[in-house]
Structures are given as C-alpha cells and as structure tokens.
C-alpha cells in the first residue's frame, strides 16, 4: 500500500495535479478516447456500434471478413481480434449497480471520514479547498446521484428485452469507471467544507429556504429524469425496430440522451462551489456524457435513415436541438 501511495503522490507531483485535477483529467481523457475511436470509420464500425446498428464490418462479436482473406492486413486482423473481445449488452446493468453501490460507499466514508475519503482529501491542493461546496450542496448532489443510479438500475431491469447483442469490453470497462468517478465528482469539490464540518443527521434537515440556483436547477433535474424515464418506457413498448412516433421523438432522434445531458448539466450547476458559476469537475463529466451519447445519437440517426429513408429523420436533430 505504501508503494501505491508513493506512486500516486509522485505522479501528482510530477504532473502538478491533485485529486480534483486527476478526476477532471480522467473525464477529458475518456472523452478523447471516445472521439479517437469514433471519428475513423474503420474504428467506429469495429468498436462503437453494436446490435441492430452495427454496420456490415462486424456482426456484434465476429468480423464478417474471413481472417485468411488475402486483402486483410495485419493491422486489420489485429483490430478485428481486438473488436471480437465483447461482453453481453445486458452488462449495461452493471453500470447502475456500480453507481448505486459507490454512492452508498461514499455516504459511509463521508459520514465517518473514512480512510478512502481521507486518501482523497489529503491529496487536494489548497486552491481547491478554499472554494468549496456547502454541506447542503454535497448532500443534495449525492442524493440526486443516488436517485439517478437507482432509477436507471430499475429501468435497466424492467425495460430490458432478451437480446444477443454484445458490446466491446472496453466500452463496458469505461462505463464502470465513469460511474465510479461520477459518484466522487458530485462531492469532491466540497472537500474543504467536509474537512471542517463533521456530517450528522441534523444536516439532512431543511432549515433554510432553497437558493435561487436550487429553485431553478432541482426542477430541471427532476423534469429531465421524468422525460428520460418516459422515453425509456416508450422505447421498451415498441415492437422491434419500429420507428418512434412519441412526441418527444418528433424533433430529436434521441431525446433520452438529451435528458441525460440535462441531468448532468443540472448537477454541475447545483454543485457549483462558492463564487463559481459551475462545478468544473462535473462540467468535465458532462463533456464526456455529451460526446459519448452524441456519437451514439449520430449513429442512430444514420441507422434510421438507412432503414426508414432520409425523409423520416431529415428534420430531426440528433440530440441537441438547434445545434446537433
């Protein structure tokens, strides 16, 4: 353990980062990774698409091209072998199990100032400790993240259909890492307050009127969550590969992705430390969510065009009305 601590501290020292900078760097690096495998057609077809939206390059777990085909280069063969390392699409449920368990774990750590919390808190620089979230912000954002995880876990169980679809194993690992990191992002910029104020059950009581920020952003979170749930329920009710006609889908191809972005945007605003407009750690988290879902939304629109014709989606935005 001492070796790991020294390695972490040395890395932070060399890179001039602390725990908050490292968490932001993780979201930025993950975003760049998604972009790097999504822009080239050859990589996107192998590693990003799956299920009904998979292109002719792959069929979920196996490449269509024969490994011994004469026109296959060693690089292409290596990429095909790498792309064949897939897990069942049902593993998406693991993301939300990880999210809920991680939220509960950090609740215990924050209440007891446990060793995991201390390990992070002692590696945060004074520039980040000075501007800190309030106790009520920490509790609210932690609770909203827990609610989000529980709702998505519930939906992944009741809105799932038997499927042989498989996804690339890196997608699965990256999803797990994202949710574990997101449950830290909702409170880490409140470490300065958490170090000087011991959490008790009294902190859960609402004794003051909500701020204007909370008054505006909390309903935004709840509205986006409700819309996303309604979209997921509607998609589950459709027969296989039916074109969606729900009002939320008439102008946007993937409104449930739009709602997901709004959820993380509301969290970034609700968790803004004192004197800041937005929580930069959660903003970097939002960037990853937007890029990751944006890539899938663009693929979905292309698939709808191929299956139902260009006219079916020509006036629909992929995910962000007026922009994308």
Automatic annotation (TrEMBL):
Q: List where in the cell it is found.
A: Endomembrane system; Endoplasmic reticulum membrane
Q: Which reaction does it catalyse?
A: a di-trans,poly-cis-dolichal + NADP(+) = a di-trans,poly-cis-polyprenal + NADPH + H(+)
Please give the pathway this protein is involved in.
Protein modification; protein glycosylation
Give any Pfam family that matches. Answer: Steroid_dh
Q: Which GO terms describe its cellular component?
A: endoplasmic reticulum membrane
Keywords (alphabetical) are: Endoplasmic reticulum, Membrane, NADP, Oxidoreductase, Transmembrane, Transmembrane helix
Q: How does it sit in the membrane?
A: Multi-pass membrane protein
Coiled-coil zones: none
3-oxo-5-alpha-steroid 4-dehydrogenase C-terminal domain residues: 208-324
Q: What is its EC number?
A: 1.3.1.94
Q: Which InterPro entries match?
A: 3-oxo-5_a-steroid_4-DH_C, Dfg10/SRD5A3
Q: Is NADP found in the keyword set?
A: yes
**Transmembrane stretches, by residue range?**
91-111, 168-188
Asked if the keyword Transmembrane belongs to this entry, the reply reads: yes
What does the UniProt function comment say about this protein?
Plays a key role in early steps of protein N-linked glycosylation by being involved in the conversion of polyprenol into dolichol. Acts as a polyprenal reductase that mediates the reduction of polyprenal into dolichal in a NADP-dependent mechanism. Dolichols are required for the synthesis of dolichol-linked monosaccharides and the oligosaccharide precursor used for N-glycosylation.
Query: To which protein family does this belong?
Result: Belongs to the steroid 5-alpha reductase family. Polyprenal reductase subfamily.
Entry protein name = Polyprenal reductase
Organism (species): Aspergillus turcosus
């Amino acid at each position: 353990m001492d070796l790991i601590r020294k390695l972490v501290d040395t890395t932070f020292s060399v890179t001039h980062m602390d725990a908050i900078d490292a968490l932001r760097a993780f979201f930025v690096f993950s975003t760049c990774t998604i972009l790097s495998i999504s822009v080239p057609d050859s990589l996107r077809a192998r590693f990003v698409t799956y299920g009904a939206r998979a292109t002719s390059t792959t069929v979920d777990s196996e490449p269509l091209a024969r490994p011994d085909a004469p026109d296959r280069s060693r690089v292409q063969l290596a990429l095909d072998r790498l792309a064949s390392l897939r897990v069942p699409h049902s593993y998406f449920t693991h993301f939300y199990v990880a999210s809920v368990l991680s939220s509960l774990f950090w609740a215990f750590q924050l209440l007891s100032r446990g060793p995991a919390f201390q390990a992070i808190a002692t590696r945060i620089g004074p520039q980040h400790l000075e501007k800190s979230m309030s106790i009520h912000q920490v509790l609210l954002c932690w609770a909203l993240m827990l609610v989000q995880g529980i709702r998505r876990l519930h939906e992944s169980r009741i809105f799932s259909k038997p499927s042989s679809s498989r996804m690339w194993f890196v997608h699965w690992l990256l999803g797990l890492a994202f949710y574990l990191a997101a449950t830290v992002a909702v409170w880490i910029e409140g470490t300065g307050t958490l170090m000087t104020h011991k959490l008790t059950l009294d902190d859960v009581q609402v004794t003051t009127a909500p701020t204007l920020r909370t008054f505006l952003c909390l309903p935004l979170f709840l509205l986006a969550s409700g819309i996303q749930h309604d979209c997921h329920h509607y998609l589950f009710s459709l027969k296989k590969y039916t074109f969606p006609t729900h009002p939320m889908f008439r102008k946007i191809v993937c409104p449930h992705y739009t709602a997901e972005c709004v959820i993380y945007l509301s969290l970034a605003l609700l968790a803004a430390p004192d004197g800041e407009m937005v929580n930069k750690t959660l903003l970097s988290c939002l960037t990853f969510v937007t890029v990751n879902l944006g890539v899938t939304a663009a693929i979905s629109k292309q698939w709808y065009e191929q299956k139902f014709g260009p006219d079916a989606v020509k006036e629909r935005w992929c995910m962000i009305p007026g922009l994308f």
